[in-house]
Amino acid sequence: MEILAFGVQADEKPLIEKAFAGLHDIRCLDVFLTEDTAPIAAGHEVVSTSVNASLNAQVLQSLAVGGTRMIAQRSTGFNNIDLDVAARLGLTIARVSYYSPYSVAEFAWTLAMAVNRRIVRASNRTRDFDFRLDGLLGRDMRGRTVGVLGTGKIGEAFTRIAHGFGMNLLGWDVAQNAACVEFGMKYVDKEELLANADLISLHVPLLPSTQHIIGRRELAAMKDDAILVNSSRGGLIDTDALVGELRKGRFAGVGLDVYEAEAGLFFLDKSLEAVQDDTLARLMTFPNVVVTSHQAYYTEDAVGEIIAATVDNVAAYLAGRHTENVLVPAAP
């Protein structure tokens, strides 16, 4: 059987091909799954997709008509999939429920320190042999307060690093994480966390209840010199509201690895095209903002675990087994 994998990055391709070698043929495409590309999957019972695939009703219908019966998404998040439609069409949907939380947590800290210590600006200057320190003043993290919104596996890993820095720890979640409490984390309501944290990092999933969890009111409640980091999902932040606050000169730094309108942009080369997204273009103009292209998970360790889980998900589907990774089970 040949499996069709959409949205495969150049670094991923040899890892995917090696993982499936001797099990199934795998055809890797660099294009993402959309309404336009879905017909390519015709005749493929199993399709694998990336986090930025568009698995709406139209795409799922097209896949089902073409003979697809199983979709193995190579990510933990699944807010891009219409699960109700998938169930109605009899499609099996599986995801990767776990991969190295340190990949994302470490990258979140990379963003935090990059904006705190003005690393991008400093690097750009020194490439021009400008070695002045003007505008590069940062702050020690030790003794300052970090607020972690979402203390699951990734939030815990982020907290562990913050504890190593010697920071005061504030947390917010629907349930307390015992490991974070052991580090000295104090769980507070969201309003108290926003008002007191010098650094805020987001580690919650994107759900209807968390859409724009950082909106106009929440941004206004934050310290003027706070640092905000998002390495989870772009929809957690109201980007237009964020731009409005940045225009007022607020925040010491903002590090974003995700953007709420990133589909059709991130993972693609748009360098020779006119910028169509005015909000993103405006965001890029602020000297205290660093934007990266949804790469927090992108380590050899995490990608290897994601691919291994995808292989297992396909094997489970073919064997008729139900695992914790299955979001929509096979039709009876």
Automatic annotation (TrEMBL):
Residues 8-327 form the D-isomer specific 2-hydroxyacid dehydrogenase catalytic domain. CDD domains: LDH_like_2. Residues 110-296 form the D-isomer specific 2-hydroxyacid dehydrogenase NAD-binding domain. Pfam families: 2-Hacid_dh, 2-Hacid_dh_C. The keyword Oxidoreductase applies. Keywords: NAD, Oxidoreductase. Its EC number is 1.1.1.28. Coiled coil: none annotated. InterPro entries: D-isomer_2_OHA_DH_cat_dom, D-isomer_DH_CS, D-isomer_DH_CS1, D-isomer_DH_NAD-bd, D-LDH-like, NAD(P)-bd_dom_sf. One of its GO terms (molecular function) is D-lactate dehydrogenase (NAD+) activity. Belongs to the D-isomer specific 2-hydroxyacid dehydrogenase family. This is 2-hydroxyacid dehydrogenase. It comes from Streptomyces mauvecolor.
